[in-house]
Amino acid sequence: MTEQKLEICGNRVILRKTSECDFPDLMALWNDGRVMKWVGFPNGLGYDLKKIRDWFSRLQVDPDRHHFVVHAEGIGFCGEVYYAVDRMHKRAGLDIKFKPEAQGQGLATDALRTLIRFVFETEPGVEEVWTEPSEENIAARKLYKRCGLKPSSRPPDMEQGPSYWVLRREDWASA
User: Fold this and answer.
1) Model pLDDT for residues 10-21, shown as the tens digit of each residue
2) How far apart are CA 16 and CA 7, in angstroms?
3) In sequence order, what DSSP letters do the residues of 116-150 get, joined into one string?
4) N or C end of the chain: smaller count of CB under 10 Å?
5) Which helix (H) or strand (E) holds 60?
């Protein structure tokens, strides 16, 4: 059986379900310390082909994890977006990483809004989306705010983290 090529169109970006052809772009992104410093890896992750194949194999068998590459006209590969559904707690964790050359152009805002729309339109059991930007990552916090997420109290069932920003389905629907 061939895998369906899922593409989600934003205003200026296209989110495409990640496939093996995206490995070189993802390895470059993940190995870039300018990108990964915000998640605790100032020298990048050091991914090679074996590591990314192992990651991709785990991704493929988990129906609650969804990874997309982001493309924009004139730039091509911009970065990645991801979400993981926690069905028990009716929430989805979000992640986004953009290469520096694609930042500061509104493309990340379009990509994240497109991902959030996709989550709320295709995951009826998800009542909120969330993320946890570090206090030092001012650009990420501005991005999340533009996309409707707000700082909130961390749910008691979650381990400690740097922060907890959330957008509830009802707030998204009324925006």
Assistant:
1) 999 999 999 999
2) 4
3) HHHHHHH-TT--EEEE---TT-HHHHHHHHHTT-E
4) N
5) helix 49-60
- The answer to whether the CB of 18 falls within 8 A of the CB of 68 is yes
pLDDT tens digits for 52-63? Answer: 999 999 999 999
Tell me how far CA of residue 4 lies from CA of 1, 17, 158, in angstroms: 9, 9, 34
* Residue 5 neighbours by CB under 8 Å, 6+ apart: 16, 17, 19
Alpha carbon distance, N-terminus to C-terminus of the chain = 40
Question: Which is nearest to 135 in space by CA: 160, 162, 158?
Answer: 162
Q: What is the pLDDT of residues 148-159, one digit of tens each?
A: 999 999 999 999
Contact by Cβ (8 Å): 106, 139: no
Partners of 15 in the β-ladder: 8, 70
How many helices (H) does the chain have, and how many strands (E)?
6, 8
Q: Which two tokens stand for residue 59?
A: 């991704």
For tokens 């922060």, the residue is 163
H or E element that contains 115: helix 107-122
Is 115 in contact with 81 (CB distance < 8 Å)?
Answer: yes
List the one residue out of 47, 132, 136, 120 whose CA is nearest residue 85. 120
